[in-house]
Amino acid sequence: MRNIFIAAALLCLPSLAEAASPPAIAASNAWARASIGASTMGAAYLTLTDNGAPDSLTGATTPVAASASLHQTTTEGGIKRMRPVPVLPLAPGKSVTFAPGGYHIMLMGLTHKLKAGEQFPLTLTFTHAPPVTVQVQVTPVGAPAPSAMPDMPDMHM
Amino acid sequence: MPTNRKRASQTGKATRKKDADKAARAVMIGGALTVFLLGVGGLLLLTPSGSTRITAEQASSIGGPFTLTDQNGRLVSDQNFRGKYELLYFGYTFCPDVCPSTLNDIAGAMQKLGTKAADIQPVFITIDPRRDTPQVLKRYVAAFDPRLIGLTGTEQQIARVAREYRVYYAPHRTGPGPDDYTMDHSSVIYLIGPDGHFLTTIPADQQAASLAADIATHIS
């Protein structure tokens, strides 16, 4: 009987820990194109879902590049510009999908050529939530954007 | 957005010019308004049917002669492409976001065009000749489609061809190192006829299937 109580208490522990932890941000469908030729720049795409309180993405790191930072490609009069975005607000219950032509994690100074089929870790930092590390799937150059497609319309203005 | 697009397409040239000026100001203000006006501004160049927006007078002034170096180190001039439709896209190989997406879609469109593709020559002209040597271009274009030709040249040669096609490009520094820069650039596909005359621009922001359909409407 006592064992059952202990087991029940142990089962409760994870949920208690969860309840006490800060708001959770989920990162999913992370992908990046394989490196092409001499370029030492890359871009990682993913979907961020805020399952907790209002928060914001403030930074990124990865062992495969000297720097990783949030960038946005904008189009004005047919001209594309990539610019750093210091902070990306995340709203509770909402997802933000990064996709070509919109938001991306810009990888500068790749220390490792990204090869199709590989994965690499990308750690994202937030104002409130603890850092999230996601495995980024490297896709072949010629492959269409895998995860971004269903959410693409809002990226094509 | 579709409603805005429709409205934008119905306005006159003068109104569009005004919209573009307004767009330029609003971009600095930022926010949701920017997103809306960017769409309108983008449509000035990136129109679904291209030809409806470009007057005959404008069309006759787009394009011109060039001599550049291809990915194999050979000198190539605009004359080399006579007899084929040319799909011209300006970009740079260090571009991590937009250029690979567009070239993927061009390569996909070439596949979807099937036998029609035999009459089309896709060409990628770099606006970053400092980094994009023929050797760099060779590996780059091969990654997308064996039919894709990559062209580079001296700063002056690139400046000239960009001017002829009204392509805007400018470096944007990202750090202190010599290679720490990205390029701001026009992202538009140009369709040139077999006689070497400019036919139309084709919006670059479309996926392979719609790009193929768009191209097909302009070739005989």
Question: Which properties best describe this structure?
Answer:
heterodimer, A: 157 residues, mainly beta, Immunoglobulin-like, ten-stranded mixed sheet, 10 strands, 12% helix, disordered C terminus, B: 220 residues, alpha+beta, seven-stranded mixed sheet, two-stranded antiparallel ribbon, 8 helices, 9 strands, 40% helix, disordered N terminus
Stated plainly, the CATH topology of chain A is called: Immunoglobulin-like
Most extensive contact: A-B, 35 and 48 residues
Over all CA atoms, what is the radius of gyration of chain A? 19 Å
Percent strand of chain B = 15-25%
Strand content of chain A: over 45%
Broad structural category of chain B: alpha+beta
CATH class of chain A: Mainly Beta
Helix content of chain B: 40-55%
Looking at this structure, what is the CATH superfamily of chain A? Answer: PCu(A)C copper chaperone
Unreliable stretches covering 5 or more consecutive residues of chain A: 12-20, 147-157
Main sheet properties of chain A: 10 strands, mixed
Structural class of chain A: mainly beta
Order of helices and strands of chain B: HHHHEEEHEHEHEEEEH
Mean pLDDT value of chain A: 84
Sheet with the most strands of chain B? 7 strands, mixed
